[in-house]
Fold:
Amino acid sequence: VWIFGYGSLVWRPGFEFTSRKVGFIRGYSRRFWQGDTFHRGSEKMVQHPVTTLLFDFQACTWGVAYEVRGEQIAASLEYLNMREAVLGGYDTKLVKFHPQEKDAEEPILALVYIATPQNPSYLGPASEEDIAAQIIVSSGCAGHNIEYLLRLADFMRYFCPQAEDKHLFSIEEALISILPCLYYTEESLEET
Structure:
């Protein structure tokens, strides 16, 4: 079984796997339109955005597919169903995953978790500036939401430099404009 991750699963799957591949799925774009009241938010805050996928015929979303085998299958699906479905409000779908590797053969069928507008935690569209402002004040048991955004942006830059994710990088840019102190270099720290 293959499992495709496009949010925190790209750096913190939380389950054992046999192999992993960087690649993309077609027909979806990543959006910070899902609320999270557990991992990256709390019941006290109204909005705490994390990613979901939006059907978008012309788009593709980059991430990581994990191969699980044998006893890993039941354990990983049990973990993910709690993490993504019960706590996160996501539904599961099968998608065609296209590995980044040059010698990759046919696409791989992979399981993916997607939040839909019908779920009660769905936030829907907002400006990148509003989403960045919400991220700044959101944290939960898995850590601060700023970490979620920055790790995802770093993953895209390092593993998928050819890919565009305007939504993700616009939110990161808005966050930087709100909190420029997050990006001090060692030189600027030495000068102060």
